[in-house]
């Protein structure tokens, strides 16, 4: 009977295309689409550290949806189509370019360590870095020379990726500053989409407190995954604060209501 038909194949019958550390990709309802599912798993140091943090996936789904929808709205192309439910979004299938594109505004993390800079030092200008996505090699940093020599992207594509990275950085910096948050750095991924004979590069994957460094403007409190990497605790509370400040969660709304319950330690 018609009214019994579900719109989408139930998740356990959908074909699993790829499972990553924090997300799973399933076959989408139409050709050229996928479903991106956010798990509660948190990993760091190439998964040498791993924990399941109740509610993280739900929050990242909402925060990443908000950012990607805004990017679409200002004309920055992304893979995002729409959010489906608490943990899933419908996305366009792309050919992922195997690079992690990191944009830094303030010294922190591996840059601070590598160059002996104090964390929190404003950089003379925004710096874009590339890392080769390869778990077995721990995502090594690479230069444009490596990228073109090994054919991961051509010079025109690198230009397009850098232009996208700058637009995303400018947009995110303003968005977060308006919420009292300093965007220290972030990681983004890109992919190729074909429209007839035309290929274009779009922003893919996720942008969330898992992949950004976000500090409170006044107190410099960390509102990102460094809370997990550095064993500081309070990760879900921090992500919830980011969502609340962006206006994704109303004062009384709880992103986790009806989903996994936040278990206080
Ligand atoms: P890094 O300082 O450790 O190189 O990280 C730079 C930014 O990239 C930071 O915002 C965290 C993010 N990031 C990821 O999203 N995934 C990763 O695997 C790593 C190493 C960093």
Automatic annotation (TrEMBL):
Any one GO MF annotation of this record: phosphoribosylaminoimidazolesuccinocarboxamide synthase activity
Report the residue ranges that make up the SAICAR synthetase/ADE2 N-terminal domain in this protein: 17-245
In short, the EC number is 6.3.2.6
Class of enzymatic activity (EC top level): ligase
Looking up NCBIfam families in the UniProt record yields: purC (TIGR00081)
Among HAMAP family, the record links this protein to: SAICAR_synth
Give the family per the record. Belongs to the SAICAR synthetase family.
Q: What is this protein called?
A: Phosphoribosylaminoimidazole-succinocarboxamide synthase
Q: What is the lineage of its organism?
A: Bacteria, Pseudomonadati, Pseudomonadota, Alphaproteobacteria, Hyphomicrobiales
């Amino acid at each position: 009977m018609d009214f019994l038909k579900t719109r989408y194949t139930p998740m356990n019958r959908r074909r699993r295309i790829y499972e990553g550390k924090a997300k799973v990709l399933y076959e989408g309802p139409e050709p050229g689409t996928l479903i991106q599912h956010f798990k509660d798993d948190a990993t760091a140091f190439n998964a040498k550290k791993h924990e399941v943090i109740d509610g993280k996936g739900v929050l990242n789904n909402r925060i990443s949806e908000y950012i990607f929808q805004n990017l679409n709205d200002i004309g920055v192309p992304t893979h995002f189509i729409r959010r489906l439910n608490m943990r899933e979004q419908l996305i366009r299938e792309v050919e992922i370019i195997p690079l992690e594109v990191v944009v830094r505004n303030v010294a922190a993390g591996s840059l601070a360590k590598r160059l002996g800079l104090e964390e929190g030092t404003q950089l003379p200008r925004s710096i874009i870095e590339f890392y080769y996505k390869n778990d077995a090699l721990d995502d090594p940093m690479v230069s444009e020379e490596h990228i073109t020599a090994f054919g991961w992207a051509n010079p025109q594509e690198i230009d397009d990726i850098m232009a996208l990275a700058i637009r995303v950085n400018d947009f995110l910096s303003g968005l977060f500053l308006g919420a009292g948050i300093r965007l220290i750095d972030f990681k983004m991924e890109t992919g190729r989409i074909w429209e007839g004979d035309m290929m274009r590069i779009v922003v893919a994957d996720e942008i969330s407190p898992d992949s950004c460094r976000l500090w409170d403007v006044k107190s410099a409190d960390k509102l990102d995954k460094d809370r997990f990497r550095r064993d500081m605790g309070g990760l879900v509370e921090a992500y919830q604060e980011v969502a609340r400040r962006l206006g994704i969660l109303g004062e009384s709304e709880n992103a986790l209501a009806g989903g996994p319950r936040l278990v206080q330690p």
